Amino acid sequence: MFYKEKSDVSFGQTPIDNIFIDIFMPMANGTFVMVYLLGYRYSLEPYDSENSPGNITISKNLGIPLSDVLSAWEFWEGKGIVKRHSDSSFDDGKYSVEFMDLKRLYLENIKPHSLNSSTGSIGVNDLIQLNENESIRGMFNSVNEIISRELAPNEKQKILQIMERYNMPCDIIKAAYSFAKNKKGIKNVNFVEGIIRNWYDMNISDISALEEYLKERSERMVLYSRVFRSLGFTRQPSQEERKVMDSWMDGLSFDMDIILKACSKSKNTSNPSIAYIDGILKSWHSKGFTSAEDTQKEDAERENQKIISAGKNTQYQKNQNPYKTKFHYKEERSSRYTPEELEKILLENQRKKFK
């Protein structure tokens, strides 16, 4: 049970339509809701045009980046509950925001599209009414083009139920059909619902969030392919291997170059594996390496150390050589006499020969 304490003191109130709370608020994240509420409050205050708060004011008061404020207005405009007005570009954030009448919006657009109250499903009359809606009709036409045929009435009913169940806009439905057809070659509406359910579980509720997800997914697929090709694998990675490779970017914050540098070390082992590469990358991370250049410095130092060690070993072997040739013995004997003594011995030997 919820109830409110009564008070005789008032510092002003901001009336919010229940339509926003019940229908639109669950669609957005907390930041977008805060931006809407604070902006709506400013819209009710009697500010003149010169002193009216703007997006920068909202950014400062909420302690969030200006980019988040601008993204919020773009999101709410996509839902049709605000309109942005600017004499130039929307990119600089210097524009006005008009809050639409939610009661009129509900009566004209949302109420006619609600589920049949008696059956809990979309009936024939509901479908006829919805087909008169421009955005719904445009969505059905786009799906027809994607699957290269006309949607059956029961498929249209199913699509509208999916939109209602997962609170998804038309753009997401079109994107799901496009993904199913182009990536999997499947046109079945139940398969499309599975895709949308997965997106819903990942908090993807608008086209911008979906585009960001698909971009990241594409980058990861490139990562998996290049790593496996470097290791000489021809199979697809397992789910566990994908998680490990994801951790290299998400947990260790490594880029593609340093990951492929680690893969090049697989020539040092007869049995390369994802676990082997994972060990190399974790070792580099513990040493503070952040790029492939850092690993090259370590390789250069290791090579220099090998050269120094090889030189020391060669000199040691020379000093410790136990084998001596006739030259060594001759050198030892000659080192016992001075040059004058050697000359005297040589002359004495020659004199003896000629006697």
Automatic annotation (TrEMBL):
Residue ranges annotated for the DnaB/C C-terminal domain, each copy included: 141-213, 233-298
Superkingdom of the organism of origin: Bacteria
Pfam families per record: DnaB_2
Family membership: Belongs to the DnaB/DnaD family.
The protein, known as: DnaD domain-containing protein
